[in-house]
Amino acid sequence: MTAYWVNTFTAIHDEERLRRYAELAGPAMRAAGGRFLARGNPVDVLEGDSALRTTIIEFPDPAAARAAYESEAYQEALRVLGDAATREIKVLQGVEDD
Question: Residues in domain DUF1330 (predicted)?
């Protein structure tokens, strides 16, 4: 069943390292079967605190999302990012239409 990787940045400490991370992370996600559905700063905040940047990536299943995270290419992107940002990453399982 489809899974969605939701990456929410709550603090950005170094824009240049974040840019370099994104240059590496994007291709790593696509190589692992991910498809970007949305990314960027919110266009509107209806409730709660405003997150700085959110990315939603679709994967064929939760295992594919986990494999993308654990891939050497993504781990290299994480090494570049280091402590340049604070974020949360969650994988949600998709729902089937009734």
Answer: 2-95
**Residue bearing tokens 């079967």:** 33
Q: 2-37: per-residue pLDDT in tens?
A: 999 999 999 999 999 999 999 999 999 999 999 999
Tokens 């696509």 belong to 30
As given in the structure block, the two tokens for residue 24 are 């590496």
Give the contacts of 91 (CB within 8 A, at least 6 positions apart).
Answer: 3, 4, 5, 6, 59, 62, 65, 66
**Cα four-point dihedral sign 46, 98, 65, 22:** negative
> Do the beta carbons of residue 32 and residue 67 sit within 8 Å?
yes
Q: Which residue has the tokens 């940002």?
A: 85
Confidence of residue 49 (pLDDT cuts 50, 70, 90): confident
